[in-house]
Amino acid sequence: MFTLAFTRRYSMSHRLLSLYNGPCGVPHGHNELVTVRLQARHPEPLDGQANMVTPFHAAKKRWHAWIDERVDHTLQLSDQDPLLTYFREQEPSLLDRILVTPGDPSTEALAACFMAKVSTFLAEQGGDLRCVEVTIEETPTNTVTFEGDPDLVLPADRFPEPPWWKRPDGSINDL
Ligand SMILES: Nc1nc2c(c(=O)[nH]1)N=C([C@H](O)[C@H](O)COP(=O)(O)OP(=O)(O)OP(=O)(O)O)CN2
């Protein structure tokens, strides 16, 4: 079984309300790396010609476009963060650049949302590939890996169905 792994870098900022009295309670930024690991849904032997699961470009193009165009340089907030009220009332033009997670935008929540999102893209591309693991390096010393079903770990009851992470589009929130 082959695994194709693709890594992309993006800048982001967030704050964690659960750590309000510490340094993570104020908005701060990271340059993060996300790696998705993809496998063929129906693995086959190499064909003796191209010898590829699928060309790299075809496998990663849509995902990397979303990371580059929609995730890079976002502010990431909990759906319960009062800063959302500020942006709604004072700077609505920036709402499109705010990625909203159900609860704090921890690296765990982001990894599960990313797993769901990349899976929607792969399904739309025909479903020949599936994502088996998402890894986010938040800092050089902190990394989170997610594998499995994001539905089982993401509390989506405060979001419309389907929430942004389950739609194969550019969305990063449901504001
Ligand atoms: N389980 C989690 N814990 C924490 C998360 C998280 O996403 N999941 N995030 C943070 C903050 O974002 C913080 O900015 C990063 O963590 P921290 O350990 O403070 O990072 P450092 O670079 O300071 O790490 P050191 O190697 O200890 O210097 C906090 N917790």
TrEMBL record:
InterPro entries (UniProt xref): 6-PTP_synth/QueD, 6-PTP_synth/QueD_sf
Annotated SUPFAM superfamilies: Tetrahydrobiopterin biosynthesis enzymes-like
Pathway linked to the protein: Purine metabolism; 7-cyano-7-deazaguanine biosynthesis
Domain of life: Bacteria
Presence of keyword S-adenosyl-L-methionine: no
EC class of the enzyme, as a word: lyase
Catalyzed reactions per annotation: 7,8-dihydroneopterin 3'-triphosphate + H2O = 6-carboxy-5,6,7,8-tetrahydropterin + triphosphate + acetaldehyde + 2 H(+)
Co-factor requirement: Zn(2+)
EC code(s) of this entry: 4.1.2.50
This protein's record includes keyword Zinc: yes
The family this protein is said to belong to: Belongs to the PTPS family. QueD subfamily.
Protein name per Swiss-Prot or TrEMBL: 6-carboxy-5,6,7,8-tetrahydropterin synthase
Keyword annotations from UniProtKB, A to Z: Lyase, Metal-binding, Zinc
